Request: fold
Amino acid sequence: MTVFTPLRTGIIGLGMASPQHAQSLIDLKEEVDVVAAFSPSADRRSAFAELFGFPVVASVDVIFNDASIDYVIILTPPNTHLELVQRAADAGKHVLLEKPLDVTLERSQQIVDVAAQANIKFGVVFQRRFRNTFAETARRLAEGELGEIVSVSMRLSNWRPQSYYDEPGRGTIARDGGGVLLTQAIHTIDQMITLAGLPTEIAGFAVTSAVHRMETEDLVHAVMRFENGAIGSLSATTSAYPGYPDEIEILGTKGSARLDSDGGTIALMDGRRIELTDNAAGGGTGADPMAFSHHNHLALHQAFLSALRDNREPVASGEDALKAHRLIAAILHAAETGARVTV
Reply:
């Protein structure tokens, strides 16, 4: 059995995303020591400490000024990310950042540049990379079993009640940077890009549907063209009551793959049919965004700790996340202008 000297971390932000991370860190207590957790809200600090038993601090300065802390986990709203990553970089601390990178493509690029210039390890929370269905499909694509890709499509059909958007800042440009694309669909977009590459051309529509009162988009439909000539479609919404599994479909010259939140199927023209099962079924598609297990978060944290120990890039890097941000920006620009947009 490998014995590790535990790495030391601080958690910044104790909101909706924190429980899955906290439970993962508890499971990894032999590998990581949570030194401090911070929220500007005293009530959140108290509730977090009572629930998970980690020490909490009343100032984020305590975390950044503690030279013993190896890395920080940033789980704050998107519009705070650049400044916090800059502070971590200045302190020489590695960063694991909750998606999205930030509220604009420009600020997102600055974050990646800051991390690179400081020579810190920088990972992004794309936990769906660790689904069994995703990993198996990626392997078979890389080995050429599906042949040349001719079509790539994805669908995200979430449900969020109006009360979700009634929270101050939720779904606004100022705090979140956008709506369904940056907040929900970015996970599925990241998976799609990782499996099939970044589209080169986009056209589409993005609107606020009659279902919600909000500043940003809750319904998007787009068509895509890829570098090799493959075409496809992308749809994303938080207006699909009561919420349905996200889907990715890849058609190739030797077969096809269809993935969703709970499993998937790879059907090959040589007669083989591979049924895929996931290790963490479900995905917060309905009114409770966090209605899923922490299994994939646990795998993500394990991989990030391994990257720090082995001095290599994390599984989902800042450069990877920028690809998703570029695609999202292109979709919104295409919707605004009515033009075909080069990604």
